[in-house]
Amino acid sequence: VNVGNEACYPQKLESRVRELEAEVEAEQRRGADAVKGVRKYERRVKELTYQTEEDKKNVARLQDLVDKLQLKVKAYKRQAEEAEEQANVHLSKCRKVQNELEEAEERADIAESQVNKLRAKSRDAGKVNTHPTFIFAYIYTYTYTHRHTHTHSQTQ
């Protein structure tokens, strides 16, 4: 019985050797696949690291651009405020000149009215001095008196 067992033993050993060789081959394939996977992930890590560095550089460039644009915006705001102040000053001057013009037109209308009255008086009386110097002095006196009285009455 022992002899038959020994005859089977080499076949069992060969079979076991083949099994172990198959397991070793399978393990070697898994190891090779694992090494390939590790290399693949290492490449991916390098790519992502490079991309991260590029992104950081781009963020720094964009931040620099944002800072420069913010400075420009501040400068434009300051220029706009200065222009608005100037516009207000010019508008105030314009209003003042407009008021002075209206007052001058009013005085001119009064003077013209006085000239017409004086001419009418001179035609009626025939004796009133119609020399331009006399008319100017008369109008100036009337206008100054009227303006002084008109201005004085406005302030009270």
Automatic annotation (TrEMBL):
Keywords: Coiled coil, Cytoplasm, Motor protein, Muscle protein, Myosin, Thick filament. Residues 12-121 form the Myosin tail domain. Residues 10-121 form a coiled coil. It comes from the Eukaryota. GO terms for cellular component: myosin complex. Pfam families: Myosin_tail_1. Its main location: cytoplasm. It is found in: Cytoplasm, Myofibril. InterPro entries: Myosin_tail. This is Myosin tail domain-containing protein. The lineage of its organism: Eukaryota, Metazoa, Chordata, Craniata, Vertebrata.
